[in-house]
Every structure is written in C-alpha cells, then in structure tokens.
## 1
Amino acid sequence: FGIASDETFVITTTNRKEITEDNFSELVQDGVTLYVLQSVDQMLLVATKERIDFLPHYDTLVKSGMYEYYASEGQNPLPFALAELIDNSLSATSRNTGIRSIQIKLLFDDSQGKPAVAVIDNGSGMTSKQLNNWAVYRLSKFTRQGDFESDHSGYVRPLPVPRSLNSDISYFGVGGKQAVFFVGQSARMISKPAASQDVHELVLSKEDF
C-alpha cells in the first residue's frame, strides 16, 4: 500500500467504522469493502465503488410493481407509486428538529438526460450499508440489524390510525423498489449521512441488470 514504516493508519468499513480486534469477526465478512486511511475521518481522494449482490432474479425487482399498480381497482396507479417514494422521505425526516423539507420534481430537460422523477429531502441521510439494504428485496425495515442497519434506524411502528403521514407504507421493505420500476427503468439514490462527510450513491438499472 506504500505505507512507510513510521506512518500510522486505520482500516475502516465504508460506514467509517474502525476495524479492531474486538469487532473484526463482526465487521469483516466475505465481499466487504474496506478503507485504509490515515484517520477515520480522512477525506477520500477519489470515488469508490462497492458491489452489491442480489439473490432474486432481476425480474423480481424490475417487474415486481406491475401487478400491484395495475390492479389498483381502476384508479390511476401513479399517485400510489409516488406515495411509496415519498414514504422514504417521511421516514428520513421524521426525527428532524427543524423544518421537514420534501420536494418532488419532474425532470424533462433532454440535455440533462432522460425524463426523471426526483424526490429530495433534508432527512438524516443513509450510509453505504443502509443504501445497500434498501436495494435488497424483502429486507424489512424491522429486520435490518448490525452494520447492515436499517435505512430507518430507530423506527417505531405507529399505532393503528387512518392512513396519514405516519410513514408506514413500505412495511415489508418492497414498496420503494416496486414504485421505482413501475415509474421508470432505473433508480439513483444519492445520500449524505448527517454526521458524515461522505456522499453515497446507489444506482439500480434495468439496463445494467
């Protein structure tokens, strides 16, 4: 690695958790991506990439929303799909001490790429592992633990009430993926955890699959 004998360094996960003798067996698993840094909070010099493995057939993701939304009892299915995407932002901003900001933008400028739906919020942000978890089909927000923590950490299911802004739509951890691939052909998630300097990006694409 080109590290001089008099230099010190740390090894961390992409979540900036330092690898130690005590947590080695917990954090270091097959396929995990690690950083060799001068310090835990060192700025990254270049962008890094991490592979995400999917067990289900890709059709499970790219076609999973079709039946659910086309079977919406004669109603326009698009609002239901958008509601699933907004639910992620509702969860992310639920613990904000200040203003909760959620924007929905419809982008049609060909010079900026293909048409897109953008949902932007000022929530807590997600780590690389939380983005990884979001990509995995049928990984409920209630069963994600350890370093592969939930993208809604600390979430408590609200008491049964009429459907409202209680962020309890995607209970089984599939709604976001179904909505994305009902609306379009790819998803790009860009997130910066509130307590981190790292910006994480996840791309899911039918073309890449």
## 2
Amino acid sequence: DGVTEVLAHGSDNLRDKFMEIPCSEDYDSHKRFAGCTPRKCGRGVTDAVITREEAERIRRIAERGLSLGGSDGGASILDLHSGALSLGKHFVNLYRYFGDKIQDIFTEEDFALYRDVRQRIQQRIAQVFGISPSAMYLTKPTFFSRMNSTGAKTAHDEYWHPHVDKVTYGSFDYTSLLYLSDYSKDFGGGRFVFMDADSNKTVEPRAGRVSFFTSGSENLHRVEKVQWGTRFAVTISFSCDPAHGIADP
C-alpha cells in the first residue's frame, strides 16, 4: 500500500484545507466550458460549511428512505432525484413503488434542507476553484450511501475498488461528499483514500465534514471496506455541461 498520510483526522475541526495538484488530461477528451472546466485541480476538506446538527438531520432523511429498502450486501444507495433505492440485489424506483405514500416519508423541509446544503457546497467549491457557482450544474447520480460490514452480494456492493469519477461518469467535473457519521465512533474502516503515485492520503469521515475534489484521474480514489458499524454519506456532484444538469430533488 506504500506510505499513508492522513489529510484530515476525525478529531480535527478544519476551517479549510486545500491541496492543489496538477490536472490530468481527462478533461481534454470532453467539451471544455470556459470559466468552469478545471484549470486548477486539487482536493479540499472543510468542517465549516455544514453543521453537525444539519448533518444529523440529513442522516435521518437517509435512514428513513433506506429503511424502505436496502441491499442484501454491504452497500445501499438512495437517490432522491431519480428515486433509485437499493432493494435486495436490485434497485426500485422509490417514487413509483411507494406513490403518494412518499409524502409520509419525506417532508418539504427535508427537500429544502437538501437544496440549501447542496447550494452551500456548490458555493464553497466554486470559491476554492475560482469559478462562478452559476457555471456549475448539479449532475447525476447524486445519492445517499449506507455502508456496513455485510459481504458483497453483487458488483454494486463492491464499493472499495479504486476509480476515477470522470471516467466512471463522464459528466462529473467536481465531486463532493458530505459525511453523515463519524469514523471510529459510528463505524470502523470506511476511510476515504486518495491514491497518489507516491502515497495514499486519507480522509476520516466526520458528521458535517465536506470533502471535495476535481473529478479527473488526478484524484484516483477508493473507500476502505467498513469493518464494523454503519457509515452514512451523501455524494453531490457537479458538471460544467448544462446538458448534464439536473434539477434538485
């Protein structure tokens, strides 16, 4: 595994931490959008954008939604935008499956909080990378994840493989993760690992912590297997291409 450095400890309360790294060539094979497509690349961590209390409220949204389904394996997802929900070895559309009953599960306040949090994260990313927030578009998939130590039952449960977001989802230019539970208190393992040529750099999740980065090969990453407990997070990603933009849930 080589050398491992901790970029952000669970016990840290980081106002802002940013590490600039050279951009990969991934962006060249996509249409470039002036004033948005990354020219400055890197990764940042902040505990100053979302409060722990807001993270707890958002985790409750995830818990309510995921209680309706859940994967047979260790990783379950809930996408409030498309309605995709893990159920057994498959996915169902939450909105079609539950119909009007969905109003008993999620409130208008839930969606308003989600929108507000998404906008604040978008503003912070734009500020750090020196672009206008209005040049960025929320893109899909944007989803809650719940991970535990249950063994994988399908390829969807194998969340720990190294990957590059821009390669996996061509639309991604900026990726963010909002953590909704605490490393070493709520779960063990499950750290986020940036895999650099010379070393691994890890982020220890903490409720309310936002980790964000440019989505190209400069940020190859993986998540460690969760050893015990339950890890909640929400992935919120942005595209520079208006054609890939989606509305808030």
## 3
Amino acid sequence: QNCFVCGQSGAAITCRERGCHRSFHLPCAVEGECVTQYFRHYRSFCWEHRPEQNVEATPEEGTTCLLCLQTVEHRTSYGTMVCPACRHAWFHRRCIQGQAVCAGIFCFLCPLCRDRKTFQTEMDTLGIRIPLR
C-alpha cells in the first residue's frame, strides 16, 4: 500500500470508513490530519472521515491556548480543540496531546473546568492518546 500523505510504500494503516481505501503510515498521520483512536477497538480515519468536535463554540478574537499561550484558530479544527464540558478552554492538538502523555489517564482533565469524564471521552474520540500512567 502507498501512503496517501508521503507517497511511499509500506503504509499499514487504512481508513476505517467503509469504501475508503486511503492508507498511511502512523508517523504520517499528523501531517495528513488523520485521527487514530487508541481505545477499545484500535481505529484510524483519514482526513476526510475523521471524527470532529460537535461543540457549538467559537473563540473570541485573540483567544490563546491554555497550555502554550499562543493564539488558536477562530474555530474548532484538526489542530484547534475546545473542552466539550465548559466550552471556554481552547488548546492546540499538539499541546493537549503533550498534556495527556504527561498526566496519564488518572490525572488528565480539562485545564480550566477540571472536568474529567466528558473531557476524556471527547479527547479519546478525537484521537488524543491517553496512557495509563
């Protein structure tokens, strides 16, 4: 299989969506804006079929990521996420992924409202890997 992101052969991951034949390498997933879910059944999705946030929220002008303090996009996207519980905590995908790896499943929660259950469920669905420790 050829990777649809880099074009090289050896792509072992195929989009889970029925009828989609896009394949990619795991390291190419971020560049191709693919989502890999690390819970229950290991599933991966290409950029076209990936799950997206259904939260009705728009950041105000100049809103910054709570973790790196850099500005976020003007809407939710692959790279910009919002807490589904409070809808006020905005962050970059790479920042919240780093937070998840450092915190682990027992300490990973929204940095603003401290919600754990709704927050972790949404982050799992959106492909944020949350290790046990």
